[in-house]
Design brief:
Blueprint: H1 2-33, E1 36-43, E2 46-53, E3 56-61, H2 76-91, H3 100-105
Length: about 110
């Protein structure tokens, strides 16, 4: 009798470990499949960007982050470069905050 209880407990424990591992793997796999896209958007006399996932806007950035005031990107390429930097950070589970030194390394041009 004790042997059967031990077998049932061992089977249950093994099954729980398998299910936990499967759930963990599925969550990790699904997070990597979330399609994040960047798009430059026309703002006033310049550009901003949006980051979307499955056609839902997650981030709408109308001005250059990290800079004081309301400065827009001079061109689509710069807006998209910063958006891609933010996506890279999000996919690597980092804070999406953009710093001035990162803008400098991307050679971002402002209009005002």
């Amino acid at each position: 009798m004790k042997y059967n209880i031990f077998k049932i407990a061992l089977f249950t424990f093994t099954l729980m470990l398998f299910v936990f591992g499967l759930v963990k793997y599925t969550n990790t796999y699904n997070n990597n499949l979330i399609g994040l896209e960047s798009n430059a958007i026309r703002i006033h006399n310049g550009y901003g960007y949006q980051i979307t996932s499955q056609e839902k806007v997650l981030i709408r950035q109308e001005y250059i982050p990290a800079l004081p005031g309301r400065k827009v990107f001079a061109n689509e390429k710069d807006a998209k470069s910063v958006a891609n930097l933010v996506i890279h950070k999000l996919l690597n589970k980092q804070s999406p905050v953009v710093y001035i030194k990162e803008l400098d390394s991307l050679r971002i041009v402002t209009l005002n």
